[in-house]
Task: inverse folding
């Protein structure tokens, strides 16, 4: 599976999360996953909530359109993003599209 897959206008992201980072950012590929650094600590679901908020902001969708489908308790996650309005420039080459 690729790190980012488009499925009928939606995206499925395969992520490797680095919590407690100095800033929020997409790092790049980490094996077959996209590495994402977030500042939130991995305590009591805070990192998951923060990741959802970060991705919603990056893809310009409501938080309700970002769903963690696998890996709630893991650094390795699969996230579904429904109808993203924007593809961040750093991720466009991975999808091979122009948005």
Result:
């Amino acid at each position: 599976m690729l790190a980012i897959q488009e499925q009928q206008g939606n995206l499925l992201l395969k992520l490797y999360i680095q919590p407690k980072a100095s800033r929020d950012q997409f790092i790049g590929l980490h094996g077959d996953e996209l590495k994402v650094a977030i500042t939130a600590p991995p305590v009591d679901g805070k990192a998951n909530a923060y990741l959802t908020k970060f991705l919603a902001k990056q893809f310009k969708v409501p938080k309700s359109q970002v769903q963690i489908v696998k890996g709630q308790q893991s650094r390795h996650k699969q996230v579904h993003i429904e109808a993203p309005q924007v593809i961040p420039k750093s991720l466009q080459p991975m999808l091979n599209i122009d948005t």
Summary: The first strand starts at residue 4 and ends at 7. Helices lie at 46-59, 92-95. The radius of gyration is 12 Å. Residues 46-59 form the longest helix (14 residues).
